[in-house]
Amino acid sequence: MRAVDIIMKKRNGSSLTKEELAYIIQGYVAGDIPEYQISALLMAIFFNGMSFEETAALTELMLQSGDVIHLDGIEGPFVDKHSTGGVGDKLSLILAPMVAACGVRVPMMSGRALGHTGGTLDKLESITGYRTQLDEATFRKIIQSCGFAMTGQTEKIVPADKKLYALRDVTATVESIPLITASILSKKVAEGADALVFDVKSGPGAFMKTIEDAERLANSLVKTGKTMGKKIVGVITDMTEPLGRKVGNFFEVEESIDCLKGTGPQDVMDITYRLGGWMLVLGGKARTVEEGIDQCKTAIKSGKAWDLFIKNIELQGGDSADMMKKYGNYRAPLVKKLKAPKSGFIASIDAYKIGLAGVYIGVGRNKTTDSVHPDVGFIFDKVKGDSVSSGDTIASVFAHSETALDAAWPLIEASLTIADQKPDHAPLIIKEITAL
Fold first, then answer.
1. Banded model confidence at residue 219, pLDDT cuts 50, 70, 90
2. 140 among known catalytic residues
3. Is position 425 annotated as part of the catalytic site?
4. Could you tell me which of 345, 330, 413, 408 has the C-alpha nearest to residue 382?
């Protein structure tokens, strides 16, 4: 078997066998197949796509390239949620304890901020002492103790994905739906989940800018996952506006606290409850999504979800007392107000522009090696649909330097659109795709 023959086969539009894919993946991880040949294959896949069977085989091989977390011996069910990334998306911090409070275990492997999208690990690490690099024994112990654990990808988990993703990033093949699917699913299956709910975001602030592209990705995730024997649901949600009223690492921890105490913004809770309802259905704890939503609401109202959140912080080395002491006070020293330039209604606040501005002030990063600031970000006094008078404060922006604020400010100003008429209401849940 030769790599060049496999490249030629895919270039000509044919499907690859599992044996051919195994030859490529194993050879690449071992260093026997050079990057220029893998680059050629990635481009052939980008243009010709892959069948769901091919994508499932690629996912399995990537999964088998490294360690897999084993949760045998722990009573399930195990269900996780994954978001394709957005601005102000703090849902994982709320969902995990809420769903765990309803009897579903949540083994969650999360990522870091990159580009305009935020990262769950950065938000958790803004809590003093919180550890996100857990070995398997600790991961298992924490799941047994509080029903969920939050960890990052280690060097030994899906190493093929790490290598392929870095190469996709420099060969303009990141947007390939089959390659995105294999990347996401291999990591999520490696963490031990039996079923998965995907929050596939669509809009300016999302990776998938159009509903059509989001639907293609959701279908690929659902059908490929089903081919692998997993229960999968894809929920397409809107990411035109920032989610909630706070954007920034510790700022989003604060808003998660509000949500877990029952006082969070309506848009955040609407999506959180919907995703949580589906997680309970997949875990066999609810017969319908509506029944699952009712259970999730009870978990919030009773305080059980909050109690598990605090327990998890302490189990993962965090200082919950310090977190509450910082609540409302942990702010970067410089603040600048975004004011309404005229009276009217907020027609939109562009999530993509806010996300990019966040990179300048240190919410996110351009490269994986960049550092982030836990105490910078945005607090919105007004959101889409609100009426404003000229000079009203729309948002407060916190940063560590005037240079950072100056770089971010043109994007922040350009994100705001004010109209004479109140905008129409747009649904947050756009479509749901299932293969149960």
1. very high
2. no
3. no
4. 345
